[in-house]
Automatic annotation (TrEMBL), chain A:
<comment type="function">
    <text>Catalyzes the first step in hexosamine metabolism, converting fructose-6P into glucosamine-6P using glutamine as a nitrogen source.</text>
</comment>
<dbReference type="InterPro" id="IPR046348">
    <property type="entry name" value="SIS_dom_sf"/>
</dbReference>
<feature type="domain" description="Glutamine amidotransferase type-2">
    <location>
        <begin position="2"/>
        <end position="227"/>
    </location>
</feature>
<dbReference type="InterPro" id="IPR017932">
    <property type="entry name" value="GATase_2_dom"/>
</dbReference>
<dbReference type="InterPro" id="IPR035466">
    <property type="entry name" value="GlmS/AgaS_SIS"/>
</dbReference>
<dbReference type="InterPro" id="IPR035490">
    <property type="entry name" value="GlmS/FrlB_SIS"/>
</dbReference>
<dbReference type="GO" id="GO:0006047">
    <property type="term" value="P:UDP-N-acetylglucosamine metabolic process"/>
</dbReference>
<feature type="active site" description="For Fru-6P isomerization activity">
    <location>
        <position position="595"/>
    </location>
</feature>
<protein>
    <recommendedName>
        <fullName>Glutamine--fructose-6-phosphate aminotransferase [isomerizing]</fullName>
        <ecNumber>2.6.1.16</ecNumber>
    </recommendedName>
</protein>
Automatic annotation (TrEMBL), chain B:
<dbReference type="InterPro" id="IPR029044">
    <property type="entry name" value="Nucleotide-diphossugar_trans"/>
</dbReference>
<dbReference type="InterPro" id="IPR056729">
    <property type="entry name" value="GMPPB_C"/>
</dbReference>
<feature type="domain" description="Nucleotidyl transferase">
    <location>
        <begin position="6"/>
        <end position="234"/>
    </location>
</feature>
<dbReference type="Pfam" id="PF25087">
    <property type="entry name" value="GMPPB_C"/>
</dbReference>
<protein>
    <submittedName>
        <fullName>Nucleotidyl transferase</fullName>
    </submittedName>
</protein>
<feature type="domain" description="Mannose-1-phosphate guanyltransferase C-terminal">
    <location>
        <begin position="260"/>
        <end position="330"/>
    </location>
</feature>
<dbReference type="GO" id="GO:0016779">
    <property type="term" value="F:nucleotidyltransferase activity"/>
</dbReference>
<keyword id="KW-0548">Nucleotidyltransferase</keyword>
<dbReference type="InterPro" id="IPR018357">
    <property type="entry name" value="Hexapep_transf_CS"/>
</dbReference>
Length: 600, 393
């Protein structure tokens, strides 16, 4: 899915800023590469793989002045997004720039024909045939509008297309089975894949129809139908809130993303786990790297750091020496690396500055590096020796949810791939995991528990073994979106200090799973807090086992012990979400926090 | 009618399909390799519509999570019908998103774009206030029967029993915005505001309701066993009704046998010596164990069938685990829906979402097991088991 934007105005406003602002509002349609073009007597094109931020830093304050411009944001699922594949695409001479959403089905034939005629292509995209066709027709002395029409006659498929031509001072656009809408703001006109791109500026819109061709010039807008006659399409007024778009009817992106986790887990394992063959295939993780691996150092920040704690524990259990480091401390600690050390950076965006710095340190020290990230073609993915994608899909909420589940599943898959021999019960469990996450979502009583506990002085989360990182993540989620005090501890550490904080106004959320031995120990920690009057929430796969001990139970289904943390974490996400909801917090945009932290 | 908005109704539970609708509304039940509502969305998009409002209500997160903010790149706007008080009430929930002539389709019936296109074209070429999509069917007694005189609708009868020349109401409508007022004015029926009652009002007052006969594809499941018939029709058509079927990405062991026709979504696995088909739909991430036999079944997303299980004529909900050696010999059987027994229906067994069958279970034809129930190993299950968490002795 992609988003396109266009802008034509007689005002001298920097077109670059307007386009970037619009692209930001289309980010829900994807954000793994972005670009824009501003047309004057020549055309300036800026495009980059990576989030919008990387395009912004490329521009680095350059004032892109021009009265017409187009932009594009992309989320690719196939193939790497490179700078070359990012839109806008241009012709051989750089006289034409085009953005496109959809697919040109006869691109291959057209490309062959154009190459035959001497055109040179720079990208692998279907889109690039469009600027070269335009060039072809412009060279036959057709006007830009005529050239655009002739181009459309040649292409098949579904598309929304916007093009600029050097010196023409206009945008030419059309749609066929892909959305395209115009926004009218006095003499300024916008076009976009969706209304929110310009809704801050105007609520007066025209929905273009299939085959209509529009010419957007400063102070002038002409719409023609498929036969070329000028039409006056109705202008409509938008009366809904742009903030709601992209949330699929949910109140917050965070809840939407929590509910997307069954799908995220399926995507994380798709094509990688084969129960039938008893194998795990991670083609992105080269066998050579696997064979030479002696020890692993993980680096990450925030939620991703907790994922690394889980990943390191999984590897240690399988006999691989593994440690997890907070990325911003990794360089300071001067952690020694030697031959056979693989440094794994876990980062949702692939742009986290602290994690990138740690990976660069490791690279400089001669270690092999692996990125585990959600964004194809991000800086981490490009700079590391190899990259494994977690495939969670776009995540908009600042508080990470589904990307953590995808990281957990991906790290469990990597750990299993590194272990010798096949672990069929694990492979079976990982294929059953999406249904179990769905079960937690369908049956969770976290909202009721949140209602009981809201208003507490502080929240403590305790867990042992694989549940310890979940306790840390549960506390972080609670902090981030409720602004309430929350801490996570290894269950056994409670009595070595933090117990002094426990009162009847500090609920303790205990993760009571992980085999009889651990459960018994955790339960004795629970009794310690119970004796101080603290309300106890048990998150467990054995509700009978906590009977009489816990005040509230959040149940998860039984699964392979490596995977229980995925399920318990979903309950803690819901607990934090509903607590924040009761407190009326701005859940998707907590104060002081940013989605992807690109400074050290 | 230029670029109208389509309102897709996806808020209703489908009570007669319980317990399949315990965790999701009827539009989310499986029809081929995707839920029913995707067929409705495909139909409107293939008819050229790019503005879509989805009305959601009952278990709405399931619809929203599945479809997301866009479908086939078309933005979806969600309108919430908090209480399900009829189809007309659902249309009112979408009113603020509609500002011109618009289309309404039921999101819980399988249709293709021909019906939508026929209705749009007929509506555009007349000055009707409402245009209904109609189908020629031998038996309309379970649905709305529509009487038409030279293209003008004269009467709508719900579940007609007489032998007048009825057409079947396909649940695809084009409306002028006047219909909102008519819905509000029509007398509610058993507390529900219905589209058909508003249309009757328009017939009486305006004489401006048209009907257009279409030979587009249409299928509906009223009762659980209907889902097997709907699936069979879709399977015979090779998957989606009018889109080329998604290529099945199914891993089949060399020794397993797939007997066509079947359709499969992504990530399916079929183990050694298993026999799958004919007339089977496999949802995403379904796993069929060694030596299992699966014939004429709807197998939904994330289902796992154990080794040596035999499943015939089954509707199997999402995330169901069938244990090793379980046998469902197939229909016909007597099925209880609400308080009525439907005799000799071709239904082997119906499993609600995430039933956990522990293995070695025998099912008497027509058996129904509620969502999330555990079925004890080695037991015999018959009849309707709802609100029962543990089934069998």
């Amino acid at each position: 899915m992609c988003g396109i934007i266009g802008y034509a105005s007689p005002d001298a406003e920097p077109a670059g800023d307007v386009l970037l602002d619009g692209l930001e509002r289309l980010e829900y349609r994807g954000y793994d590469s972005a670009g824009l073009a501003v047309a004057n007597s020549t055309i300036e094109v800026y495009k980059r793989a990576g989030e919008l931020a990387s395009l912004e830093s490329t521009l680095d304050g350059t004032d892109l002045v021009g009265s017409v411009g187009i932009g594009h944001t992309r989320w690719s699922t196939h193939g790497p997004p490179t700078d070359e594949n990012a839109h806008p695409h241009t012709d051989c001479e750089g006289r034409v720039a085009v953005v496109h959403n959809g697919i040109v089905t006869n691109a291959e034939a057209l490309r062959a024909e154009l190459v035959e005629a001497g055109h040179v292509f720079e990208s692998d995209t279907d889109t690039e045939v469009v600027p070269h066709l335009l060039e072809e027709f412009l060279d036959r002395d057709l006007s830009p509008e005529e050239a655009f029409e002739c181009t459309l006659e040649r292409i098949e498929g579904s598309y929304a297309i916007a093009a600029v031509v050097a010196g023409a001072d206009a945008i030419y656009a059309t749609r066929r089975h892909s959305p395209l809408v115009l926004g009218l703001d006095g003499e300024t006109t916008y076009l976009a894949s969706d209304v929110p791109a310009f809704l801050e500026q105007t609520d007066r819109v025209i929905y273009l129809e299939d085959e209509q061709i529009v010419r957007l010039a400063p102070s002038e807008l002409v719409v023609r139908d498929g036969e070329g006659s000028v039409v006056e399409p109705p202008v409509e007024t938008i009366d809904w809130d742009p903030e709601d778009v992209g949330k699929s009817g949910y109140d917050h992106f965070m809840l939407k993303e929590i509910y997307e986790q069954p799908q995220a887990v399926r995507q994380a394992t798709r094509g990688r786990v084969s129960e039938l063959d008893g194998t795990i295939e991670l083609t992105a993780f080269p066998t050579a790297m696997r064979n030479e691996l002696d020890r692993v150092q993980f680096v990450g920040c925030g939620t991703s750091y907790y994922a690394t704690r889980y990943g390191a524990a999984l590897l240690r259990e399988r006999g691989v020496p593994a440690q997890a480091f907070v990325a911003s401390e990794y360089g300071t600690e001067r952690v020694p690396t030697e031959d056979g050390t693989v440094v794994v950076g876990v980062t949702q965006s692939g742009e986290t500055a602290d994690t990138l710095a740690a990976l660069r340190d490791a690279n400089g020290a001669g270690a092999t590096t692996l990125a585990v990230t959600n964004v194809v073609g991000s800086s981490a993915a490009r700079e590391c020796d190899a990259a494994v994608y977690v495939r969670a899909g776009p995540e908009i909420s600042v508080a990470a949810t589904k990307s953590f589940a995808s990281q957990q599943v991906t790290l469990a898959t990597i750990a299993s791939a590194l272990a010798d021999g096949t672990d069929r019960p694990f492979l079976e469990s990982i294929r059953d995991l999406p249904a179990q996450v769905q079960r937690v979502l369908d049956r969770s009583n976290a909202r009721d528990v949140a209602e009981e506990l809201v208003g507490a002085d502080a929240y403590f989360f305790i867990g042992r073994g694989y549940q310890h990182p979940v306790a840390l993540e549960g506390a972080l989620k609670m902090k981030e979106i409720t602004y309430e005090h929350a801490e996570g501890f290894p269950a056994g550490e409670l009595k070595h200090g933090p117990l002094a904080l426990v009162t009847d106004r500090t609920p303790v959320v205990a993760l009571v799973t992980g085999g009889d031995d651990l459960v018994e120990k955790t339960l004795s920690n629970v009794r310690e807090v119970e004796a101080r009057g603290a309300p106890v929430v048990a998150v467990t796969d054995d509700p009978d086992g906590v009977d009489g001990v816990a005040d509230h139970v959040l149940e998860v289904p039984e699964t392979h012990r490596y995977l229980v943390p995925v399920l318990t974490n979903v309950q803690l996400q819901l607990l934090a979400y509903w607590t924040a909801n009761l407190l009326d917090r701005p859940i998707d945009k907590p104060r002081n926090l940013a989605k992807s932290v690109t400074v050290e | 009618m230029t670029d109208p908005t389509a309102v897709v109704l996806a808020a209703g539970e489908g009570k007669r399909l319980r317990p399949l609708t315990r965790h999701r509304p009827k539009p989310m039940l499986s029809a081929g390799t995707c839920p029913i509502v995707e067929h409705a969305l495909d139909a409107v998009i293939d008819a050229g519509i790019t503005s879509i409002v989805v009305v959601v209500g009952y278990k709405r997160t399931d619809v929203q999570s599945h479809l997301g903010p866009t479908y086939r790149d078309v933005p979806l706007t969600y309108a919430v019908q908090e209480k399900q008080l009829g189809t007309g009430h659902a249309v009112l929930a979408a009113q603020s998103h509609v500002d011109g002539p618009f289309l309404v389709v039921n999101g819980d019936q399988v249709i293709d774009h021909r019906i939508v296109r026929d209705v749009l074209e007929a509506h555009a070429s007349s000055d009707a206030v409402a245009t209904l999509g109609l189908l020629r069917r031998a038996d309309v007694s379970d649905y709305g029967g529509v009487l038409v005189d030279d293209g003008t609708v004269t009467e709508i009868v719900e579940g007609p029993r007489d032998d007048r020349d009825y057409r079947l109401n396909a649940g695809v409508y084009a409306f002028e915005t006047d219909v909102f007022d008519a819905i509000r004015r029509a007398r509610p029926r058993a507390g529900e505001q219905l589209i058909v009652d508003a249309i009757e009002l328009l017939i009486d007052e305006r004489d401006g309701v048209r009907g257009v006969e279409s030979d587009g594809f249409w299928a509906d499941a009223t009762y659980p066993w209907d889902l097997l018939d709907v699936a069979e029709t879709i399977v015979e058509n090779g998957g989606r009704t009018d889109r080329p079927g998604d290529e099945p990405s199914i891993s089949v062991h060399d020794s397993a046998v797939v007997r066509p026709p079947i359709v499969a979504a992504t990530d399916c696995e079929v183990g050694p010596n298993a026999v799958v088909g004919p007339n089977v739909t496999l949802g995403t991430n379904a796993t069929i164990g060694s030596n299992a036999v699966v014939e004429r079944c709807v197998v939904d997303t994330d289902v796992r069938v154990g080794a040596n299980a035999t499943l015939i004529d089954c509707v199997i909900g999402r995330g169901v685990r069938i244990g090793a050696g379980t046998v469902v010999p197939g229909g016909p059987g007597d099925v209880r829906v609400d308080d009525r027994i439907h005799e000799d229906r071709r239904l082997g067994a119906l499993f609600g979402d995430r039933v956990e069958d522990r293995g070695g279970v025998r099912y008497v034809p027509g058996a129904i097991v509620d969502a999330d129930a555990v079925v004890r190993a080695g037991s015999v299950v018959s009849g309707r088991n709802t609100y029962v968490r543990t089934v069998g002795r």
